[in-house]
């Protein structure tokens, strides 16, 4: 998990940078490595958190005043503020979310990554302006040990092969001189 960070905006929504979930045709298949993504939220008033395809978020928030992050660790002061008005409906009423949750206090939203481009959206549950929440994001990597062992075995195998080739070359060089 990342450390909890306070985010706030006077707009109607906080929107993350776009995250690409891997497919089997990608050279790096993040979806297969990630088990689940967890988004921990702490807020004093009812806050909505949702994960949706980037195109659906763009359509829902098209004319809505919002603050958008440009990278994973963007801080509130660095968000790009987009002008607009209020949303046409509260966020929970939009049927675009792959995973969503609403609450106060502290809670965790869990999402299983899928192929495509995704965005995390944080809004007041009633769709009003001035969103404030502390957020941390983390991922469960169930196959990390398997990947680490496979890489270690491959590196060890290459090392042994290079050692054998070097030893053979040294043997041939000494034998020719003698």
Summarize the structure.
This protein is of the alpha+beta class and 178 residues long. It has helices at residues 30-33, 54-60, 144-177, and strands at 5-9, 13-15, 19-21, 36-53, 66-68, 80-82, 99-111, 116-124, 131-140.
Structure description:
The chain has 178 residues and is of the alpha+beta class. Mean pLDDT is 84; it is low at 23-29. The chain is elongated and about 90 Å long. It folds into two domains: 5-142, no CATH class; 143-178. The protein has helices at residues 30-33, 54-60, 144-177; strands at 5-9, 13-15, 19-21, 36-53, 66-68, 80-82, 99-111, 116-124, 131-140.
What topology does this entry show?
Elements lengths: L4 E5 L3 E3 L3 E3 L8 H4 L2 E18 H7 L5 E3 L11 E3 L16 E13 L4 E9 L6 E10 L3 H34 L1
Parallel strand pairs: 2-5
Antiparallel strand pairs: 1-9, 2-8, 3-8, 4-7, 4-8, 4-9, 5-6
Total domains: 2
Q: How many β-strand stretches?
A: 9
Q: Estimate the global geometry from the Cα principal axes.
A: elongated
Query: How much is the radius of gyration in Å?
Result: 24 Å
Helix-strand pattern: EEEHEHEEEEEH
The parts where pLDDT drops under 50 for at least 5 residues are: 23-29
Helix/sheet category: alpha+beta
Separate helix tally = 3
- Report the helical percentage: 25-40%
Cα-to-Cα separation, first versus last residue: 62 Å
User: Largest sheet at a glance?
Assistant: 9 strands, mixed
Strand content: 35-45%
What is the mean pLDDT?
A: 84
